[in-house]
Design brief:
Chain lengths: ~80, ~250, ~230
């Protein structure tokens, strides 16, 4: 069951004459897998940078910022209730 | 169990619970993937009819099924969002669409790359293939509709309605094309069912199958976490998290 | 009970009358889809050199696809003016059941935009060399299929009525959903041309119409509530 089915590396790469189809499929798959890891990484970097930038513009005093946030939250909730 | 599910419904708990889970899921999925791919490409016996081209099966079958499963998950999350207004359900529905669309596109690409050596053509208007093409269009429609709205809230509800309408349509589309084929006598027996395959061919497919499912949920979780950070940006816990991250840098 | 039934019937009748009056006061709503239908179909024979036989084989598909596009393009006017002048909001707030109102509204819209397409379709069959056996199934299929298409397209319209530029998005949303109607509609003509029994296909088209007519108003209603807020 666990024997390598190809006589040589060249045979393996040739895939019985279907190299383009088989390797093409696996390449497309690899691209999607890599994209699914890479996109969230970049997105996270972007979100963190964006939120830091916003935080810097807001007053750093936590008491004030909490007050603002709770006010915004209340307004938002009110807006959702409408 | 129920409490665990209930907690997952809260964005904060979802974020905190997945933090430790992500490395494990990544490791297990990649391990299964490597075992399955190496086994499938090098050690599984060649098919007596298709030779080595059948080795595309190891990624074609799981990604196609994953694409369909992703749409069902999308519609379920959309329904939960519409009925109970669960924030987390909408976040998952939103990130589910691009990941599912990617899988569906992969299923189509690998399917046509497999079709050329097997039936001598990249494409036939067969029920399963056509349904998957329409499924891809439905994914793109849901994404386009959400993106067209300026308001996140309206966009999410509109996309939810479309997802639910779409999931009702998928089986109808499948049977309509199936019927259309019987009228035009296009061969629809593709002989692709994994069940008829011997275990040496079938077992590696289980590995890649679970790997692809794991990678799907991993992508959904990773994207959801970003979405949570953005949507909950006014919450204190996100602010604390960001401050801690800044301190670490 | 009976009073509320009369009230409902009366108000639905009023809705129907109002929609029809509006349509007849601006003839473009009736004529434009019709002109689109005829012009677009007549482009196909010019797009390639085809023998009459070849034209006849593509005729059902061409007529059906173009009818689908005409129905979809005509949908822009379904909720647009009501949305702009605020009467859509009133409809959503009114105590009358929204479900039946939407059914009647789409029905009225179909009577002025869809039905003319059905009536003129034999002429297009003539232009495309449709064999004689195909005319009756073409008419019957369009008669059952275009109202179903109107219902499906109305879901897309309701989802996009609040957006500024919705034309192409509407097509992206609606076209995939209308494939079953298209397949069985064009398939009905094909079935007839192949001399096969029609009753099964007619039954499926009827079932699709019933399905669209009963389920779509729910989705349209939900979509309108989202668009208005």
């Amino acid at each position: 069951m666990f024997e390598f089915r190809f006589a040589s590396l060249g045979d393996f790469l040739a895939m019985g004459g279907h190299a383009g189809f088989v390797w093409g499929s696996y390449l497309a798959f690899a691209l999607v897998v890599v994209w699914n890891f890479w996109q969230p990484r970049m997105e996270r970097r972007r979100v963190v940078r964006l939120l830091h930038a916003r935080q810097d513009r807001q007053p750093q005093q936590s008491a004030i910022s909490v007050a603002i946030h709770s006010q915004q939250g209340a307004q938002q909730q009110q807006g959702e209730a409408d | 169990m129920w409490q665990w599910l209930y907690k997952l419904g809260s964005p904060r708990h979802f974020y905190e619970m997945t933090t430790g889970f992500v490395p494990w899921l990544t490791g297990v999925s990649l391990f299964l993937l490597i075992v399955g791919v190496v086994w499938g490409l090098g050690f599984a016996p060649p098919d007596y009819q298709m030779g080595d081209s059948y080795r595309i099966l190891y990624i074609h079958v799981p990604t196609s099924m994953g694409g369909m499963g992703a749409f069902v998950l999308l519609a379920m999350m959309a329904a939960m969002h519409m009925i109970w207004n669960i924030k987390m359900a909408d976040i998952v529905a939103k990130v589910c669409a691009p990941v599912g669309a990617g899988y569906t596109a992969l299923g189509l690409i690998t399917g046509s790359l497999w079709g050329k050596p097997t039936w001598g053509t990249y494409w036939i208007w067969e029920a399963r293939l056509t349904s998957y093409l329409i499924l891809l269009f439905l994914f793109l429609g849901v994404m386009a509709l959400r993106a067209a709205y300026d308001s996140e809230r309206s966009g999410s509800k509109a996309a939810s309605v479309l997802a639910i309408v779409g999931v009702v349509n998928v089986p109808i589309i499948y049977y309509s094309v199936y019927w259309w084929n019987t009228l035009h006598q296009v061969p629809s027996e593709l002989g692709r069912d994994g069940s008829a395959n011997p275990p040496e061919i079938f077992i590696p497919a289980l590995f890649t199958g679970f790997a692809v499912i794991g990678l799907f949920f991993l992508a959904v979780i990773l994207r959801s976490r970003n979405e949570i950070l953005y949507r909950e940006r006014r919450a204190q816990w996100v602010q604390d998290l960001l401050e801690k991250e800044l301190a670490d840098v | 009970m009976s009073r509320s039934a009369i009230g409902l019937g009366g108000s639905l009748g009023a809705t129907l009358q109002r929609e029809l009056q509006l349509a007849f006061s601006s003839p473009g709503r009736i004529v434009n889809p019709l002109m689109f239908f005829v012009i677009a179909v007549s482009l196909f024979p010019l797009g390639g050199r085809m023998s009459p036989d070849q034209l006849g084989t593509i005729a059902p598909g061409v007529i059906w696809v173009t009818a689908l596009l005409a129905v979809m393009l005509s949908m822009e006017s379904l909720f647009r003016s009501d949305f702009d002048d605020g009467s859509l909001e009133q409809l959503l707030l009114s105590p009358q059941p929204l479900y039946f109102h939407l059914q009647v509204k789409v029905l009225a819209h179909w009577l002025v935009t869809g039905l003319p397409l059905v009536v003129i379709s034999p002429l297009l069959g003539l232009l495309l060399q449709l064999p004689a056996a195909g005319y009756a199934p073409l008419l019957l299929g369009l008669l059952l299929g275009t109202p179903a298409l109107s219902m499906i397209a109305a879901i897309g319209t309701a989802l996009t009525v609040g957006l500024a530029r919705s034309g192409l998005l509407l097509a992206v949303l609606v076209l995939p959903l209308s494939i079953p109607v298209l397949v069985f509609g064009a398939g009905l003509v094909d079935t007839a041309l192949n001399g096969l029994p029609l009753s099964g296909v007619v039954a499926v088209l009827g079932a699709l119409l019933v399905l669209a007519g009963t389920l779509a108003p729910l989705a349209i209603g939900a979509a309108l509530r989202i668009s208005v807020h």
